[in-house]
Amino acid sequence: MTEASILFFRTCLALLAMPIYLLSFLGIWEPFCKKIFFPFFLEKLSAIHNRKTKKQKQELFRNLPDFAGPSGELKLLEIGTGCGANFQFYPPGCKVTCTDINPNFQQGLSRSMSQNQHIHYERFLVAAGEDLHQVPSGSVDAVVCTLVLCSVQSVNSTLKEVMRVLKPGGIFYFLEHVADDHSSWRYFWQQVCYPTWKLVFAGCCLTREIWKNLEQANFSELKLQHISVPLPGTPIKPHIIGYAVK
Questions:
Q1: Over the stretch 5-36, which tens digit does the pLDDT of each residue have?
Q2: Count of CB atoms within 10 A of residue 212's CB?
Q3: pLDDT tens digit sequence for 99-136
Q4: Which long-range contacts (CB under 8 A, 24 or more apart) does 137-140 make?
């Protein structure tokens, strides 16, 4: 009965979103989404999300200076930088390498960089989380990934790259929306929305249980917490937040 209900509501939602499905079929939606819609949407969402999670992020990144190298220099790699929503939480003098698979965030990124001149921006790489070959192994003190693992092609491959680029004892920070409890109504609606949501929001997957990938990634230490972020009208309230040490 549940599977039939999910299929029924998925079909209804697809019918409502039929213009987008048609544009996708014609090869128009994906480039429009990548270049115009998603950068605009993500900048708006990031501002709201930052307001809702400001205290949690401040606490999350509080120990970031502790992972600086012997010279006091802190080298940080951010996967899926987007519009630079995390810059305000990084300590002064931090050397940041930004990566994103989508190079079309320039406007939002420039605004964020101009507002956060307390950190040093080393370079911007157009790269997927699963392939960071431009970053040498064991070269960074910290890796940050927020609202990104929902849309990478492979969570496990991305975490392998995180482990590779981190120095021994380096730290990986994460904040991701995840699947809700399978017995909940929200999980039911996550399953209903899954195909249309993934199409509209550039490959974002609603039902990933990312905490399981993290638990299996062979970090020496993992601190992970399930939290709820109040985002009314969306199926992305359940989140995980925490850090892992190589």
A1: 999 999 999 999 999 999 999 999 999 999 99
A2: 12
A3: 999 999 988 899 999 999 999 999 999 999 999 999 99
A4: 137/164, 137/165, 138/164, 138/165, 138/166, 138/167, 138/168, 139/75, 139/165, 139/167, 140/75, 140/76, 140/77, 140/97, 140/165, 140/166, 140/167, 140/170
